[in-house]
């Protein structure tokens, strides 16, 4: 332990080193090369000598050596300080050195709190334990996510393979009557790598394309497949061999791995909904004149009649709505999107479903509850009636922007207009015969949406009503209230 005089001498050395700092950093003994005056003999002390030819010993250095004779342990320290610029630092805050030495003896790290201005011993390995615990949890989570991802991919791969085998078995059993099968590379080429998107459907996107023979087509990529590929099978099995003027024609398909596409004839006028709800698009509603609406309604009715009675098997569409009615260059309507279709024998008029299918607003009540009746071809008649009501009013069947909030339900609103002989579109100038056409369409549609399926007409009767005279039609009961006193008029 150094005495008080030793510490003072050390402080003098620090001052001397500060005065000659540049020389000390240059090289050994350089601290004094520039500080002493000429001398002719070396300085010797305790076996250590300093010789600087032509230099003289400074007085403070001589005093330092004199003091060194009283403290024999000081010489080596002074030699190291002068030769190697070795310094010893001590804490200005009391007890720091002692506490840290005590921590070192206990094998624990020493810490210092700037707030308490006091040293303390850290708990050995506490931070390591926290880091180790955090790392363990993170590793477990990563391993769990990796395992879950691997399991999901394995199950998905297995399901995809089962769906692929199911579709291949169907196509093999379907025979040579199926449309042309294309590879995915051919589909990409036909659509120019899916460059021109026409729209978005319930099961995927539709793109414009062109076959190698120059025929324009619409390609629907089934992107949002659910279940076991039944949507694809429904489309191919229903319209794959149907040729009717009011049903869109399926020209080909693609089934390659998990990629599936349906290739239809291209309809240049798009879908009917863009003309009905013209305020939602750039298309003018004036194109839908009363006579054009009657032609479109009659064409849709003929297409549905063909599906119900003209095919080898009865086809129930279950998703008749304006979006699924496509128009060719002459506004001829064509029914499309058979992803929800159901096949049944022609002699069976009743079908069984495990769940409701279709689009809200167009789904018949019996599809929600069997209390309204049994599911049959009359379910498509209901959807057709809702479509016609939207077409004659230009409003969606649950349109919220009708002036009177009590008349939001479109069927009720139209029924009251018809019952009081008011015009549906008073701002639109129409001739008397055009007004009669609109009234006829509305009355037929109200018959089609009767809640009781037995009160709805079949599609052949609907066609007779559309082509017949307005004078032959009677107002139906309110379609939103059961009225057993009213029966379907015989036409």
TrEMBL record:
Query: What is catalysed by this protein?
Result: L-threonyl-[protein] + ATP = O-phospho-L-threonyl-[protein] + ADP + H(+); L-seryl-[protein] + ATP = O-phospho-L-seryl-[protein] + ADP + H(+)
Bilayer topology: Single-pass type I membrane protein
Where is the protein situated, by its record's location annotation?
Membrane
The residues that cross the membrane are 130-152
Look up the signal peptide feature and give its range: none
Q: Which PROSITE patterns match?
A: PROTEIN_KINASE_ATP, PROTEIN_KINASE_DOM, PROTEIN_KINASE_ST
- Looking at its record, which EC class is this enzyme? transferase
Name of the protein in its database record: non-specific serine/threonine protein kinase
């Amino acid at each position: 332990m150094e005495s008080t005089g030793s510490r003072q001498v050390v402080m003098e050395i620090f001052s001397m080193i500060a005065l000659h700092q540049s020389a000390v950093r240059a090289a050994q003994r350089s601290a004094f090369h520039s500080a002493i005056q000429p001398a002719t003999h070396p300085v010797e002390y305790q076996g250590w000598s300093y010789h600087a030819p032509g230099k003289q010993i400074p007085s403070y250095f001589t005093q330092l050596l004199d003091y060194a004779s009283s403290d024999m342990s000081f010489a080596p320290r002074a030699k190291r300080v002068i030769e190697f610029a070795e310094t010893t630092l001590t804490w200005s805050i009391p007890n720091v050195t002692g506490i840290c030495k005590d921590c070192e003896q206990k094998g624990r790290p020493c810490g210092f709190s700037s707030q308490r201005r006091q040293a303390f011993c850290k708990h050995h390995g506490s931070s390591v334990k926290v880091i180790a615990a955090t790392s363990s949890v993170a590793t477990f989570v990563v391993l769990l996510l990796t395992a879950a991802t691997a399991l999901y991919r394995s199950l998905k791969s297995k399901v995809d393979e089962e769906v692929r085998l199911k579709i291949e078995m169907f196509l093999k059993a379907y025979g040579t009557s199926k449309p042309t099968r294309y590879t995915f590379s051919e589909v990409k080429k036909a659509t120019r790598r899916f460059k021109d998107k026409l729209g978005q459907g319930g099961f995927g996107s539709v793109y414009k394309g062109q076959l190698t023979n120059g025929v324009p087509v619409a390609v629907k990529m089934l992107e949002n497949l659910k279940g076991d590929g039944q949507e694809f099978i429904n489309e191919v099995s229903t319209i794959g061999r149907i040729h009717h003027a009011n049903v869109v024609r399926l020209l080909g398909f693609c089934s390659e791995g998990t990629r599936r596409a349906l290739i239809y004839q291209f309809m240049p006028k798009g879908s009917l909904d863009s003309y009905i709800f013209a305020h939602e698009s750039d298309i003018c509603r004036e194109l839908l004149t009363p006579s054009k609406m009657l032609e479109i309604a009659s064409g849709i009715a003929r297409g549905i009649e063909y599906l119900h009675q003209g095919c080898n098997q009865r086809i129930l569409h279950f998703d008749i709505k304006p979006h699924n009615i496509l128009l060719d260059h002459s506004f001829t309507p064509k029914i499309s999107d058979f992803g929800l279709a159901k096949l049944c024998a022609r002699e069976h008029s009743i079908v069984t479903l495990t769940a409701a299918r279709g689009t809200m607003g167009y789904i018949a009540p019996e599809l929600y509850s069997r209390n309204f009746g049994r599911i049959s071809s009359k379910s498509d008649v209901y959807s057709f009636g809702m479509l016609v009501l939207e077409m004659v009013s230009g409003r969606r069947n649950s349109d919220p922007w009708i002036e009177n909030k009590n008349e939001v339900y479109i069927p009720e609103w139209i029924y009251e207009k018809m019952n009081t002989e008011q015009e549906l579109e008073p701002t639109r100038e129409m001739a008397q015969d055009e007004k009669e056409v609109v009234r006829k369409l509305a009355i037929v549609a109200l018959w089609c949406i009767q809640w009781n399926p037995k009160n709805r007409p079949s599609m052949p009767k609907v066609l007779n009503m559309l082509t017949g005279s307005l004078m032959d039609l009677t107002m139906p009961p309110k379609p939103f209230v059961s009225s057993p006193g009213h029966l379907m008029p015989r036409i």
